[in-house]
Specification:
195 residues; alpha/beta; Rossmann fold; 7 helices; 8 strands
């Protein structure tokens, strides 16, 4: 059995640099032996997280997204930086997926606990989305997901891609290294693969 990774971008924009980046990471993960599910957060159209809405009418799309997180051993996440932080669509998806089902303790974090994530960012700025990645690492740590040690940052993203190819040499070299680490960690940590 192979490690199961879910890959997605924290951007819903058509032509997103971060979607291109996570698509490349997905190819590397398959080459490393992982089973990869690629999703688009746009397909879930979640309302803003609201505790009253959670109690009265937990969105069906939030259940679907939560189930996908639960079914995977790890994640590949590419997110741009908006105003120095993660995108609202990414934070909202994590907030909904982290909620416990009736009867589960608040601390269960079933969709995230003990899993691994590879984080990356492409940005038109010269900093490559570093501030957003730092915030994403903090969020993942809070929900008990281990972030692989490498940061993949693609600065000046408008010049870093040639179509769907990443041509900036530094992130292009580091990306497969990070992805292999995610696959290795997901394989080692997965109860499904080690029972």
């Amino acid at each position: 059995m192979a490690a199961k990774l879910m890959a997605f971008a924290g951007s819903t924009r058509a032509g997103s640099y971060n979607q291109r980046l996570v698509d490349i990471a997905s190819r590397h993960a398959r080459e490393a032996g992982a089973d990869v599910t690629e999703i688009r957060l746009k397909d879930f159209a979640l309302p803003l997280y609201d505790e009253d809405l959670e109690a009265s009418a937990f969105p069906e799309k939030a259940h679907e997204l939560r189930a996908l997180f639960i079914a995977h051993d790890g994640f590949l996440i590419a997110s741009p930086e908006y105003n120095g932080g993660v995108t609202s669509v990414l934070k909202n998806a994590i907030d909904w997926a982290s909620r416990p089902l009736p009867g589960e303790p608040m601390s269960a974090l079933t969709a995230f606990r003990g899993k691994v994530a590879g984080v990356m960012s492409a940005s038109i700025s010269p900093f490559g989305g570093l501030r957003g990645i730092i915030q994403l690492r903090h969020i993942l740590g809070t929900i008990q997901t281990l972030a692989a040690t490498e940061n993949i940052l693609v600065p000046l993203a408008s010049k870093a891609f040639d179509g769907d190819a990443l041509v900036d040499p530094m992130p292009a070299q580091l990306l497969p290294v990070m992805v292999r680490r995610v696959v290795q960690l997901a394989t080692a940590l997965s109860p499904r693969l080690n029972s």
